[in-house]
Amino acid sequence: MSVSLHNLTLRSLLVLALILGLSGCSVRYDKNGKILFNTDLASVLGNEVGQFTLADGSKGALRELGGRYSLKWSNLMIERPLEGVSWARIINQYHIEGHTLLLLKVATSSCPAQYRLVDLQNTRSQEWAFTGICDIGPDITASADKLQLNFKTDNRIEQFNWQHGEVYHRRLPVQPQKTVQTDRREKVKTSRKAKSQSSSKPVKRTPVKAEQPLPPKVAQPELDNSLPTEIYQPTKTRQTSLEIKS
After folding, report:
1. I want to staple 26 with a disulfide (CB 3.0 to 4.6 A). Which of 40, 43, 113, 176 is the partner?
2. Which pLDDT tens digit goes with each residue over 34-85?
3. 54 Cβ contact partners less than 8 Å away, ≥ 6 residues apart
């Protein structure tokens, strides 16, 4: 009986070691395209602060260990560190044309609330950091083939469009809005004029010929003051696909 308990304990320890070994590994590629198998302590000792589902149905997670954040997904144990952030959370996820888009809110040394977009497809990933825009949440529009993020500032809109694996940047002017105070002032002026006219003595008026109506105005095209659309480069493209050799 003691032998069987010993074997059971030994087998349990081996299974536990195997599980820890598999979950504590990650796959990366170096600059030369070589596969690197690293120890992934975040899976064993870290905290899982967010989850997401990829377009193929597999699961992924956002993890934190010692103030460092990283993404890990797919059955191939692919990992992508989030560089230069001290805090990160997943705001939303989108599935477009087989891509999984993660909108992240992060804290950096220069901004406590900044947004990033991460594109995951199979084992390949790209990341765009919207630098220069701090503590401003985007207006989001998602369609079958495009994701649009509009960051509105005082005098312009920074627009970023993800489409077919690329992000395009465009700067649009903010249309000025009429204030309500001017309308109220005009109403007060007209009411004062009406009162003064009613209190004054009647004046004889000579008939005046009705003026001919002016010809209709031709609609003029609106001026496009936006800058031409430009490709917004990702921070770093990680070719971590096991199917493509460099």
Report:
1. 40
2. 655 566 776 777 899 999 999 999 999 999 999 999 999 977 788 899 999 9
3. 60, 73, 74, 100, 120
- In total, the chain counts a number of residues equal to 246
pLDDT, tens digit, 9 for 90 and up, residues 191-228: 665 555 555 556 566 665 555 555 554 444 444 444 45
Buried b (16+ CB within 10 A) or exposed e, 123-148: bbbbbbbbeebeeeebeeeeeeeebb
Q: What is the DSSP string of 113-173?
A: SEEEEEEEETTEEEEEE-TT--S-PPEEEE-SS-EEEEEE-SSEEEEEEEETTEEEEEEEE
Strand pairing of 25-29 and 87-96? unpaired
**CA dist., res. 124 & res. 146, Å (int):** 19
**Separation between Cα atoms, residue 180 and residue 152, nearest integer Å:** 22
71 touches 60 (CB < 8 A): yes
The whole-model pTM stands at 0.66
Walk across the sheet containing 147-152 and list its strands.
139-142, 147-152, 156-163, 166-173, 230-232
Contacts of 33 (CB under 8 A, 6+ apart): 239, 245, 246
d(CA 194, CA 180): 22
Q: What are φ and ψ of residue 8, in 5° steps? A: -65, -40
The CA-based angle 140-141-147, given to 5 degrees, is 95
